[in-house]
Amino acid sequence: MTLEFETLLIPTDGSERAEDAARRGFDLVAALEADVAVCSVADSSIATGTGYSGDSESIRTRLRGRATDRATRLRDEADDRGLEAEAVVREGIPATEILDVADELGVDGIVIGTSGRGGVARALIGSVADRVLRRADVPVVTITADAATHSPAETGFEDILLPTDGSDAATAAHDAAFTLASRLEATLHALAVVDSRVTATLEAITDEDPERALRDRADATLESVASDARGRGLEVLTATETGRPASAICEYASDEAVDLIVMGTAGRGGVERALVGSVADRVVRTAPVPVVTVRPAAGASE
């Protein structure tokens, strides 16, 4: 499936964090010269919650009114920025409705704010953003609070980071990264990280140099990615680091002033929790810039 990124969906619940993320999403929409649909969902569970004894239809009406206000306000902001925008309002379970709207409109990606590290660094888990990430058939752009708060001078997308280890999950993100780099006329940074925990384990059981072997394998993977990217006319830089993958990815993004990270996830597997606890999960929660996550066969039926 070829990813085009012609239309993006941006949900909002009216919170400051969600609206900051939406505005950062508008930066990406503008850079891509794409269209945007702003979606707000009146959460039906509020009106039908167990033990509520009031007028649920009255509550639904108020919730729909607030959702409409949220969507139209952000739609108007997008219009003021010269973007082609529409407002969409739904009633139901937020994550489900967001995904249904994405399918109905045929969008190429969803942009959503995350709750970041809060609590025990698991605020994302179980949230609307988490459910969208695990179930979306299109790439999802997650934006942390840090990633949302850039000054106007820092809203460009000139450098894109593509972490890869050659796995199927990582490779699923290559086409998205290439497309974005081409559309944004950005430099692509292909990064491989040799996991220091793996090398430490192997060093304890072998007389060989496992780090050297792993770095050689990583370099070969990067050369293949770089060759494919250059074949598409892209400017490419490659780097191999050693450390804990998620930390190394975020540190590279900060050190090299990267504007966007594009990476694959392991998809829905197991109990739809493959993302949780993974490298992608940690990067999504801690990245200083927006992160585009792509599931294998994104957009295809399972």
As a percent range, the share of helical residues equals 40-55%
Q: How many angstroms separate the termini?
A: 14 Å
The biggest sheet amounts to: 10 strands, mixed
Label the overall shape. elongated
Compute the average pLDDT: 86
Helix-strand category: alpha/beta
Describe the fold and architecture.
The chain has one domain: Rossmann fold (3-Layer(aba) Sandwich), CATH 3.40.50. The chain has helices spanning 16-32, 44-47, 56-80, 94-105, 118-121, 128-135, 145-148, 168-171, 174-184, 196-203, 210-231, 245-255, 269-272, 279-286, and strands at 7-11, 35-43, 84-92, 109-113, 140-143, 159-163, 187-195, 236-243, 260-264, 291-294. A ten-stranded mixed beta sheet has the order 3-2-1-4-5-10-9-6-7-8, with helices on both faces. It contains 14 helices and ten strands. Helices cover 47% and strands 21% of the residues. The longest helix is centred in the first third of the chain and has 25 residues, at 56-80. The relative contact order is 0.15. The chain is of the alpha/beta class and 302 residues long. Helix 1 links the parallel strand 1 and strand 2 (35-43). Belongs to the universal stress protein A family. Residues 5-142, 157-295 form the UspA domain. It comes from Natrarchaeobaculum aegyptiacum. InterPro entries: Rossmann-like_a/b/a_fold, Universal_stress_UspA, UspA. This is Stress response protein.
